[in-house]
Amino acid sequence: MNRPAGRGPRRLTRWWRRRSLRTRLTVIAATAIAASVFLAFQVASELLDWELRNTAEDQLRADSRVLAANAEHAGLAQLQLPPYPGSGRLVRVILPDGSIRTPDGQPALPPVSEDAGRVARGASTDLMESGDSDDDGYLVHTLRAGGGAVQVARAADDTPINQFGLGMLLIGLLCVVCGALVGRAVARTGLAPIDRLTAAAVRVAHTRDLDADIPDEGGGEIRRLIQSINDMLAALRDSRQAQRLLAEDAAHELKTPLTSLRLNIELLVRLDRRGTLDSALPSESRTRLLNDLGAQVAELSTLAAELTDLARGDVTDENTELLDLADVVVAASAQACSRTPDIEVALDVTSVWVSGRPAALQRAVLNLIDNAGKWSPADQPVQVRLRARGASAVLEVDDAGPGIDAADVPRVFDRFYRADSARALPGSGLGLSIVQRVVDAHGGRATVGRSPRGGALLRVDLPAAPIAGPKGGDRRGP
Q: Parallel, antiparallel, or unpaired: how do β-strands 126-130 and 138-145 relate?
């Protein structure tokens, strides 16, 4: 069975990705040096071969001219050809009739080529030929002389090239090894800040100590990486501090209703065990106590829900969508009236389209209405107005209560903050904090002021959607 064509490259890619950065740099350095040595060997070999060939050709031409001069003086047939000494150049004389003469004991040269025959017949003055095969590995120069031609040849010798190649191979291997060692050393030195950064990050992960910043060292990318990690640690410190404060505040706020609830339940259990529940608690007192227990349980439920909502922050699965804020305000108003029938809400809203999360916005509006409902007298409704002003959607919720003291205004949106005048009223001090978080998440702004009716005026400005929705009229009610 044949393997898929792409399996080999994918396997090589996975292997490469599993290597450490230090190993990758070492391999890249060694490969780069090997490629450079190979390229240098190729260029140097060609230059050396060209130089040796030119030298050999010049030597053959010089020897041919000397031999031709002797042939012109003595004649081709009478030219003295000393016996072959066993090495060196080879000579051959081509007579006018096409026959040849060679020294005694000389190895046989390749047959006279057709081009060399034309030189002997006077068609040209000289000719340089080469044979690269194993049978005729000679460099032959043919020169016209005395009605025929003389030839001087030299066997092609690749020994210098082979020796040069062996030397370059050894040098190349040495360079590759040295390059790998140098690349390893450079990688170790260059990655030392990253190693220290990794060790610091591991130490933070093991000790959970977010207070120790990583020392700023190196430059360029390393410095930016360290600064980014330090910024991340600072954000984690702030988040952990916020969680700690939330837990401490929650424990403090839960303590009072839990203590009251426990005391009331213990009282009921103690009286029931004594069998004096009916005599010790008249019907009216028992009803009042049970109502207090129900109110305390409801307060705890509200506080737990608000704590959960606040602790989640902006982490939510709800998608942002284009919506009519007037629909959100109407739905929140209806929910507030159903939860607390004593609240009367007067709506004066106009369709304004925003980009946001419907449930989060409805929770924020509901908290505003609930907060105003706690302060409004029974005969005075909570007024809710929504208008488009410029590029903003402006929501105003006001009541006819006593208003907010100037000293309390800066802390109105703080978590668990409750003015002295509000401590007797039900609530957790988280409602307006949730409003602030939702408004901030939508790029808006929440402010507090004084209502024309003397109470508090809470105002929310949200960016209106750039794409206008369908036109709608005013809505009043419920």
A: antiparallel
